[in-house]
């Protein structure tokens, strides 16, 4: 009885671990979580510090709810940056955020960064100008950009020398972008998902219309567009308020290394994302090896149990 219960438990646990393997959309590309670049509640360790992240400026962390880059006060700047660089060749960063506040005017916005510099306050959504790397700007206040609906989300690839076009909301620097009018005070969790395959593609998807429904903001493909991100870059977020204010909250960050042992890019048959996979594909050889290891383990446990039973019986008989 004891042995059969143990065997059932071991097999159940092994099957659960096997089923937990995740894949990127409708491809054979595995998603390997990067704890060093992920963030979730309670955000801080027991000593009220974070092992993998630094934060500063006006950032406030409420361990059960959010990392607030700026509160609803004027002239605030806050940031949070990874302590180690992101060196994966292909990756996906999905993060949940919340933009909310009172009144009719809100700003200025927040940014996601993948840059060689880290944790340097400045005038570009709370971080340094003339950066080297990628910035994704969630701009919620319109200064001077006729014909564009705000909030506006745009990407800029910095070369370390070019300044952000502050006067025209980054018009001269835009690599790609989209309007996202419902991104503030949305009725569903607001999320962004940035996917990068080196020398192949850069894609940004947004969730703000309905839960589980993603809207493509932009998709860039090489060699049509140059979007080479530094191979060693720090992941960060920063926010800023000026005369207008807003709460800029980061709720969670999940970063995955996208790994394909057959290659390094997306699905080579179509090159396009597909719907999420509900049941991971497994090769027969992998399953045979899995069952072989399971039965080997169960055999070892069974042998130990039989040996213990014989020993216990001999001890009982020795008493008489």
From TrEMBL:
One of its GO terms (molecular function) is D-mannose binding. Residues 1-19 form the signal peptide. The keyword Transmembrane applies. CDD domains: lectin_leg-like (cd07308). GO terms for biological process: endoplasmic reticulum to Golgi vesicle-mediated transport. PROSITE patterns: L_LECTIN_LIKE (PS51328). It comes from the Eukaryota. It holds the Pfam family Lectin_leg-like. This is Lectin family integral membrane protein. It comes from Talaromyces proteolyticus.
């Amino acid at each position: 009885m004891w042995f059969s219960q143990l065997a059932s438990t071991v097999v159940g646990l092994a099957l659960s671990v096997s089923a937990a393997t995740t894949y990127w959309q409708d491809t054979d590309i595995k998603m390997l979580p990067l704890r060093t670049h992920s963030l979730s509640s309670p955000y801080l360790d027991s000593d009220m510090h974070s092992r993998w992240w630094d934060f500063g400026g006006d950032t406030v962390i409420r361990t059960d709810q959010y990392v607030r880059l700026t509160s609803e006060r004027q002239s605030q700047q806050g940031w949070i940056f990874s302590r180690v660089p992101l060196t994966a060749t292909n990756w996906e960063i999905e993060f949940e955020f919340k933009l909310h506040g009172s009144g009719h005017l809100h700003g200025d916005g927040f940014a996601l960064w993948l840059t060689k510099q880290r944790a340097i306050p400045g005038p570009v959504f709370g971080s340094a100008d003339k950066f080297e790397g990628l910035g994704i700007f969630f701009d919620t206040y319109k200064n001077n950009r006729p014909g564009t609906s705000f909030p506006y989300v745009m990407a800029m690839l910095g070369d370390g020398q070019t300044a952000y076009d502050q006067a025209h909301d980054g018009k001269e620097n835009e690599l790609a972008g989209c309007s996202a009018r419902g991104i503030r005070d949305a009725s569903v969790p607001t999320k962004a998902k940035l996917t990068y395959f080196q020398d192949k593609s850069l894609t940004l998807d947004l969730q703000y219309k309905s839960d589980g429904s993603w809207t493509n903001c932009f998709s860039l493909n090489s060699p049509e567009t140059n979007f080479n991100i530094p191979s060693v870059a720090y992941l960060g977020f920063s926010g800023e308020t000026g005369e207008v204010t807003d709460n800029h909250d980061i709720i969670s960050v999940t970063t995955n290394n996208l790994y394909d042992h057959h290659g390094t890019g997306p699905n080579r048959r179509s090159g396009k994302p597909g719907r999420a996979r509900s049941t991971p594909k497994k090769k027969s050889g992998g399953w045979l090896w899995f069952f072989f290891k399971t039965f080997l383990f169960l055999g070892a446990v069974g042998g130990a149990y039989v040996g213990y039973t014989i020993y216990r019986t001999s001890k009982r008989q020795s008493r008489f």
